[in-house]
Fold:
Amino acid sequence: MRSTSESSPSALDASTDRERLLVAPAVDRRTFRSLQFDADLVIVGGGLAGTCAAITAARAGVQVILVHDRPVLGGNSSSEVRLWVLGATAHMSNNNRWAREGGVVDEILVENTYRNPDGNPLIFDTVLLEKATAEPNLTVLLNTALVDVEMADASGRRIDRVSAFCSQNSTRYDIGGNLFLDSSGDGALAFLAGAAFRMGAESSSEFGEKFAPTDDYGHLLGHSIYFYSKDVGHPVRFTPPAFALSDLDSIPRARNFNTSEDGCRLWWIEWGGRLDTVHETETIKWRLWQVVYGVWNHLKNSGEFPEAANLTLEWVGTIPGKRESRRFEGLYMLRQDDVFGQTQHPDAVAYGGWSIDLHPADGVFSEKPGCNQLHSRGTYQIPYRCLVSRDVDNLFLAGRVMSASHVAFGSTRVMGTSAHCAQAVAVAAALCLRDGRRPADLVEPESMAELQRELLRRGQHIPQHTLRDGDDLVGRARVSASSALALGSLPDNGSAVPLAEDRGQLLPLPAGPVPQLGLRLDVSGPTTLKVELRQGRRPDDYTPDRVLAGKEVRLDAGDDQLVKLDFDAELAEPGYVTICLLANDRVAVRVSDQLVTGLVPLRHRRDQPEDPGTGCPGFEFWAPIRRPDGRNLALTLDPPVRLGDPAAVSNGVDRPTCATNAWIAEFDDPHPGLTLRWDDPIDLGRIELAFDTDFDHAMESVLYGQPEDAMPHCVRDFRVRAGERVLAEVHDHHQSRWTLTLDDVVSTDELTVEVDAVNGAAPAAVFSVRCYADPDARILRHDGGARP
Structure:
């Protein structure tokens, strides 16, 4: 990356004493200071998508400039807006298991949870800023707004440079790049480059989308502004500003306001979907301020909320959180059928899992519900083609501007999904720069296979894809362990959960006969308990709507009854099953404090009815129970089920799917460890380990609050040996991934990972061990990328 500077000579020459005084005489005119940069990849927009793309690309060896028009990174997730980061985990409210996004966005969320379990948005700012500024290949320009775009030639097919301005330092930036990414939210870069875009909603007929909204509902999602309140311990008077909304009768849901909710729990304070959500944003902001201050006046001064006496406004958003504006046309446009049908795309590089979540355009003033959320059965793939502009040859799209219909956008718009897609763009950019190719060229099958492989290497989970890595030396090793969990029982902790609702246990089983299941029950009176063994449509489908077998168990009153169930069922292939205990007000089931990688307690949360009118699929929601309340069922399995095969560390999957995909030690193993042996010595330059940070846990970034700082399944203290030589000893580990880059290549025929402690009540578990001769994980390894 190079930089040149031009300053006004008249101002510099007029200085009589640079250290004490600058005296500048009058001149005809002056120009702002100008700086020129050139980079491999220029990213416009430093929301979560742009930030994750920038970090991912920089780590891949790409010289990156990130241009962002706000004082902090993160966009809607920053302290300026304070919306929690969510994606396919969907608040752990649907059937998407182990769906938290991987890669840099996972690293950020795990680190934020560790440092900031209470969800302070200011701390989240610091996590993003620290991660970005740690990368030597990344230059971050904050408070810097895009001004103009210079195309390379008259064809308009290629961006050459962009200009931007920072009002804080009165500096103009002239920035050239080989590749560009628009993650600006409103699509400022793609708009100025002349790329085709859409704003509003497609008709139902264009893509056959039955959920396409009517004119009455509206065609755009609005903006929101949130507020925080604080109890100061003494009465606080509030005098509303003159612009505060005085008549809350115009808000149909005014009765929903209360003093216990603030921040982004008030997502439904929304407006602007009938306006131009780009050019009329300031108008929308003022209307939302009227609502917020009017609501606060109502809470403080209506007399209906005596508990508000000691409350004061601690914070009100000064910019609105935007949901929707321009969507740009890529090589493919995601649509409703891709979400509900879970389409398999040959160029899948990311995934979604949030509901199709559309809001009435009139927002808080609408008589309609604040949102209409329709879920798919599970996660769905997002193709690379949605992230490549069809009109500008060196332009990528990520964040809210990616290529999707209005309906599909209702799901892809959330920040976890946007960031995951942006990370795919970052790796694609590195490959394009290395080989001198255009973004569209990577759609070719061989190139796409390499892109997918590089993404999986970096922790980017892609559903139904497995890493096949010829450079990974572990594939040639024999893997053994001190022990491997064969689950025969989960111990009863002495407490029982009433079956006031259907309860379940998600359990991976091998192919073949289903083992005998034992449950411990407290029964208040004679009754019949219904227990069903269910499965989804695929081994990695966690919607339990196929009943494999059922039992009706007659019970008499009595506590701590051991009930054994023989289901007389067989599985044709390994996969997850759900043990469903149907609600019974006379029965309570004993639970266990024991955590195990790949085991999840569930409850039947609600049903989504099938709706032919909208195309919505119908199924039951069996959602996880958050810790600390979420506990596995105390159960026995006969014969025991082998869950923790050491060979899993080389199977190419770093989270549970149709199996745990992990080595798991026995509960009582005093010195758990993995050993890899090679027939001949290998040259070892880099070691990568993947641990269990509970990808089922949503890790909302703000406000929600998390029950732990470090995930209890994650290995905390460990060491890595090559033969007798200790290569690394690690304490207080909490991240999903760990990499050791060796200064000098080590020759060895044996590698051992020894676990000394785990962060919680779970046995040691490791998803993967990867070993490479090459210590350098970068894709691009020269100064400056080739111009595609």
